[in-house]
Design a protein that fits this description.
Largest sheet: none
Radius of gyration: 18 Å
Shape: elongated
Oligomer: single chain
Order of helices and strands: HHHHHHH
Structural class: mainly alpha
Number of domains: 1
């Protein structure tokens, strides 16, 4: 069954049902594969305006669910780093978050979606995630100064060099 789900998730969706299966794979997997998002980027759809509207709603729900799960995982691991005063994996956490955020922007290149929908959703995701990114860095900067933590300052130097959006 798992192989069948993986195979479905790696094919570019073209029907409403295939899109729903793709979204389920994105939402219900603890770490959706890069292939699933790559397949979604290649997807297409022809259908009624009502069906396209329903598909847009599903896209928004999927984006929110994937980002929510990714942020929760990021915060959990970052908190562990802070609690155990171990910042070796912190840069990697930020890089993973960046990758997750960029994967979820799969909808931006889907020409069958209205340009206004793609732009508004893309801008919303980028604005919210940029704010989260900046707020997190600000908090960590405050902590490094407050605690005079040289290792955290070094990690922050590296993390601040990461461009969230390519």
């Amino acid at each position: 069954m798992r192989d069948n789900t993986a195979q479905i998730a790696s094919q570019a969706p073209t029907t409403y049902q295939e899109w729903l299966s793709c979204f389920d794979s994105m939402k219900n997997s603890m770490n959706p594969s890069d292939e699933t998002f790559a397949a979604a980027r290649k997807g297409n759809f022809t259908g009624s305006e009502l069906t396209k509207s329903a598909l847009q709603k599903q896209i928004v729900e999927t984006v929110n669910a994937v980002l929510d799960r990714s942020i929760k995982r990021f915060v959990r691991h970052l908190n562990e780093n802070i609690i155990f005063n171990d910042f070796l994996q912190t840069e990697l956490l930020f890089k993973r978050l960046k990758k997750d955020i960029n994967k979820v922007l799969f909808f931006e290149g889907l020409a069958f979606l209205p340009r206004s929908f793609r732009c508004e959703l893309g801008e919303s995701v980028k604005e919210q995630m940029s704010k989260f990114w900046i707020d997190t860095l600000s908090y960590l900067s405050e902590q490094s100064i407050e605690l005079s933590h040289a290792e955290l300052e070094d990690v922050l130097f590296l993390v601040k060099r990461i461009n969230l959006f390519e």
